[in-house]
Structures are given as C-alpha cells and as structure tokens.
C-alpha cells in the first residue's frame, strides 16, 4: 500500500490446498471460483490450477490456486505446489476424525518446509452434514471430548470433530480457522477473504521475496535448488533393464 | 461355476506393451528431413531402458526435490535434436527446430508415412534395416506403405497351433478391416484386430452362433446402473446378488495373494467371496504350471490373465472373443501401470506380497470403470486398437500442425490437440511415437471419466504412459478450451457451450518430462490458442465437431451400407461413419459392434 499509485493495487497470491482425499478441497475451490457445487465429484488427478480475484477494500488479491489431489500417492508432489506459496488451505472433513490427523500432518509439513510466513488456514468442511446452525462456530464448544464417538445421533448429526478441538489446535499453531460447507457456500468466501487480509503487505509488493508473484522466478529458484535425488535417480535409471 | 473347463495354453497376448527388443543399437537419427522415415520407435524400449548418458543433460539437471515420484521419472530416451541444439540435423534455421515435427505419430495428414507400428511395440522403417536384423522384429517396409511381417516371438507352441488352425479355416475374406494388409501381412500378424478375427475363428463354430443377440441383451440398458449396497443387516442381499448377476460384463482385479483390487460391479462385501473362489481356481492351475486362461459356464465366458502379481478376470455374456476380452484386461492393466508405474507396482508386491493395492490406486476406480464401460458399450477404438481423427481438410490440419510447432517450448515432449475424443493434431519428437494404448488411457481419463473436466481450470497430471515407458511419470498439462471460452470469448453462444457434451470439448494436452514445467506449458497453451483463433483454425475445429461424423449415405449416396469401420494399419487410425440413424441407441450400437467384431 505504501508504494501504491493505482487506486487499487492488485497482487497475486499463490495459494495451495492440501488435505486428505475426499474432504472437499476441489469443492471449496469450485464454490469460490465458480460459485458452483457438484455432488459426487470425481477425485482430482494430479492438481488443478485456478485463479480468482478477491476484492478487499484497499486492494485486489488475485489468487493463483493449486488444488491438489489428496490421495497418498500424490503426496510426494506436494512440495512442488506449496513451495513459494504465500498461503495454504489445509482442509479436513469434520465428519471424519482421521482427516484432521492428516491435516495436522500437512500443517506440520508446511511449517517445516514451506516459505516462512506462509498464511495457513485450517478448514473443516462439510458443515452441511451437521445439524447446527451454520454460523455457530462455538456451538459445540462444550462438547469437549473431541472425536465424539457417538457418531450419528438421532437427529442425523454426522459431526465427529468438535469445533473446540480443531479451534484450539488452530490457535496453538497460529492458524486461521473456519468451518465451511462447500455445498451450501457457508463461510467459503470468508476463508479466502480472511487469507487475503492476513497476507502481509510486505510479501505482496516490493521485494519479490518469498513469493514472487507469478512464480517464474520462484520456479527457477526451485530448479537450482539442490538436487538430492540425483544419485537415486541415476541409480534407478541404471537399474532399468526393460 | 466351472462346468466345462477348457484350457487354452499360455495366452498369446496381443498388446501394445513394450517388449524389450534385443536391438541394442542406439536409434539412428533419421537423416532425411522430410519426416518420412521417422526413426525407429521400436527402439523406444531400449532408449528408455538405457541411461543413454550424454543425451539427457536437461533431465538430470532439472531434478527437483527428492521424492518418490522423482525416482520414477522416466529416463528420457535420447531426443538429440531437441536437447542439443547443435546437432547436425538441426542445421536448418534456428527458428524451426526439426526435433519436433508436426507429422503426427499416427500420420494424421501425412500421405507418405512409411512407419509401421506393430502391437508388440516395434516399428519398421527404412532408416536402419541393416542393424535391425535381429530376431525380435524384422522391419521391412516398402515404398508403397509396405507391410511387414514381424517374426513371431518365442511363445508357447500353442500360438503356432492357433495360427495353423486359423490358416486352415479362416478365409481371409472374413476381414472387416484392411483387406490389403491382411493379405499381405499373412497370418502371423499380431495386430489385436487380427487377433479378434482369429480368435473368433478359433472359438466359435460359425454354424453355432450364440443367440445372444435376441433375448440376452434385453437388459443391456441397465448394464451401467449402480448396484445397491448391501445394507448392514444383509436384508437385501439376495436382491443385490440378483442385480449383480444380471450384469453382462464383470471385471475383477485381484492380487495373487487373493486381495480384491477392483470390481466393476458390486461392493467389497458382495464380491469378496467370489474373489476368494477365483483366486483359488487360478492359483490351483498356476501351481500345476498350467495356467488357466479361460473357461465357460453356460453362455458366460471367463477369461483370466495374469500380469506379474495381479490377476485379471473378465466375465462376459456378450459373446466376445477371448482375444477381445484379453485386450480389455490388458488395457485395465495399463491403466494401473499408468497410475503406479511398473517399478512401483513390482516393489509394492516384492516388499509385501499381500499388499492391498486399493490404497495406492485410490481415486482411480472411476478411470478403471470408465475404461471397462467403454469396452462393454463397444468401443471401435479398443476393438481396432487404433484412434480416430477429427475430419478436417489436409491444408487446415497443416496450419494447425504448424501453429503447434511454432509455439512449442523447450520442455515439450508431446503436444496434442484433441476434439471430442478425436485427434486433431500431434507434435512429437522425431523418434517417439505415441502408442494407441497410451492415447486410449489419456482419452479415457479426459473424455470418459470426466474427473479432469469437472474441476475446471487447468490441470497438471502426473501420468505414466506404459507404451512410452512404463517406468516413470510424464507430466501432462491439460486445458479444455470450451470452458476457457466461457470466460474469454463470448462470441460462442452460451447455450452451445453448455449443450456440448463433455465429449465434444476441445482439449490441448502438452506433455513434458519435467514436472516443474507447468507454467512454461501454460504459456505455450496461451500462445497456441491465440494463434489458432487468429488463423481461423479454432472455428474450423469447432465446425468439424459440430458436423460430427458423416453418415454412410453422405459418403456414398443411396448406399445400403449401415455402418463400417476402416482401419489404416500404417497410420494406426480408423474411421467410421456416424452411428445414427441405425445405431443411435446404446443397445443397437453394442449389437453393431458385436457384428463388427465377428
């Protein structure tokens, strides 16, 4: 903002979505980008790249979104997507406790390996499967026993991860936290807006530091990055006798 | 289950899988610039397998971080002229690197292609006849687009028997395809299409046609409906079982340890018992060193195929031949390899023989199912193992080819424009062709399964193309243009864009061996699209899609002919008229294709 001359400066922000398979990463993006929802969406293969603008009062953020596939076999490709990302959305399914565990792994990996200062949002998706009013983010606050074992109770509440549990974890780790429904659109734009607001302006303008806007610079940097695989790759090539 | 069991001996696989050839000579760079002799792709397997040291500078330098995927990166076969700009062949002007050519693998527009590809992955050309006189594949090709006779592989004696029996009573005129090539090619041809014919001849007495046409296809319309899940109390088990049994086609994939991997119909609870039975049967014969390849129960044919640690079973009531079913199973295997690569698959089972492969394959069930369903519906492309091209004029294709060529970037391996599941244009390195089986997998992923399109945006997909190299991944940039049009080009009426089924979309596929090259390829996509819009090619493609295939009466007015399939062997392409009006329904189409297969 400091050096802004145009009425509304616009900047690109690289964002990556991570999380277990079938938690609704693509659905969140689809809701954010196209305001659309598809029931029974087929799994993402590899990764999809999408862009969407987010208008803030003082500036425009253009999100460059990497929507990654959640299957385990794609996990090794993730660094390629979160490297140089200024923000990450780590998604879990609030009806599936294991997906939160996976989300915590992703958070840890991001904190360890991604650019320092990356803005991470923890998102519990599928809020529509619970029967609480969608905006009561602490309605279940008293349900402190976390992964309520009593699963679907009489009124069809499929929630298995309590808001309190996830929220306290998010606070401990310094993450943004939201519960969303991609199906109903609940809280989806809010997540992205919150991320946009949380991106420090210094990382947007001026010094093309950790997240060079469109990634070109970033990528060359990646390539020059050390090549730990070299020897192993050669080995595998030699072993190839097909 | 097994009433009349008859054992055919070790199956002669008909595939596009790469067989190692014994030819160790590095591929000779084609010297003629006209592209007629594209250098041997038969060497592909060798190229791929050899480290081919000095030819791969860019590869080893562009390694990213270390992860599993990286290990699997296909050791890129030498692409000298692309990588080493100073190679003699690139002497032609700097702007036009001859390394990639617009001469599509399958020679979409080329009239004089001399390359023949055989299903066993070999190719014949003139460029190096002398060096290739080895047993695996003899390549001879004549100026007249000559045919050559791949020498038979050292397989069981059975194949010999098969062919002789064939020779005795399969009149060549049964061919529905390329008559000339048939006559020329002799009976030892290994093309899947030929196999289909031949196995038909061997498995079926012509006087004893199975009556599957009349009554048995009655419920075919329900073939692709989901089977209900068995509810927890098992109350509906019987009903579900009936549904399951009413399917005409089943595919089962299991590990040799008996773990279920995939089943087209029915959930795990339902099929587990059958998986156990089939595993027992297969293992029994394996133990006796006399592998089971197929058996018949009533009108149902069971075909078994074993690939490494995996068992594949096709169960068909559609009267398909063993060879057809076997080719289908092979395609499913290719799909699995495409997801995992061969080394990963092997490693998984070497380390833990009772690996549950469903984890590693998670998310690809839809790909397997859409592939399986395309076989069940009857896919000319699978039947002939050839591909179909969009019908446009040669000059127009030429313009498109050149557009792609001009826009190509350093990292590009293959570039394709595909419209409605039909190929429009391909650019590729001179010495690599694209295998029909690989294209089948790609087209299935993009146009049948819909996982890619549904997401919108652009995609970056690691994929192993087993025909190219089953040991590593390539990275595929995919962009669908109609979706693109919505935002940018508003001159296309929104309604057509929405009405167009997803099979009618135009896709640009750019394949690279470098997993970091997304943005480079994305830029290339933008350039290509801009140029295609500018030179009018985009409209030509759209018009061609809208027109669809011509009907038989358009081709020959007043003809009685309802449908035909024509395959050009030299180009690995086929063409056919529109299915409508005679074969517009699913059932009619299936019947039509069954006839074709006969």
From TrEMBL, chain A:
Acidic residues bias spans: 142-155
GO MF entries: GTP binding; GTPase activity
Keyword check for Nucleotide-binding: yes
InterPro entries named among the record's database cross-references: P-loop_NTPase, Small_GTP-bd, Small_GTPase
Nucleotide-binding in keyword set: yes
Tree of life domain: Eukaryota
Chain residue ranges for the region called Disordered: 131-165, 203-242
UniProt entry keywords in alphabetical sequence: Nucleotide-binding
Name of this chain's protein: Ras-domain-containing protein
Source organism: Hyaloscypha hepaticicola
Automatic annotation (TrEMBL), chain B:
Localization annotation: Endosome, Multivesicular body membrane; Prevacuolar compartment membrane; Vacuole membrane
Membrane topology term: Peripheral membrane protein
Residue ranges of domain FUZ/MON1/HPS1 first Longin in the record: 249-371
Domain of life the protein comes from: Eukaryota
Coiled coil: none
BP GO annotations: autophagy; protein targeting to vacuole; vesicle-mediated transport
Domain FUZ/MON1/HPS1 third Longin residues, every copy: 561-591
InterPro entries: FUZ/MON1/HPS1_longin_1 (IPR043972), FUZ/MON1/HPS1_longin_2 (IPR043971), FUZ/MON1/HPS1_longin_3 (IPR043970), Mon1 (IPR004353)
Comp. bias intervals (Low complexity): 133-142
Compositional bias (Polar residues): 1-12, 21-62, 103-117
GO CC annotations on file: fungal-type vacuole membrane; Mon1-Ccz1 complex; multivesicular body membrane
Secretion signal span: none
Basic and acidic residues: bias regions: 63-73
Primary localization class, coarse: membrane
Domain FUZ/MON1/HPS1 second Longin: 411-529
Keywords: Autophagy, Endosome, Membrane, Protein transport, Transport, Vacuole
Stretches the record annotates as Disordered: 1-164
Role of this protein: Required for multiple vacuole delivery pathways including the cytoplasm to vacuole transport (Cvt), autophagy, pexophagy and endocytosis.
Family the UniProt entry places it in: Belongs to the MON1/SAND family.
UniProt name for this protein: Vacuolar fusion protein MON1
Organism phylogeny: Eukaryota, Fungi, Dikarya, Ascomycota, Pezizomycotina
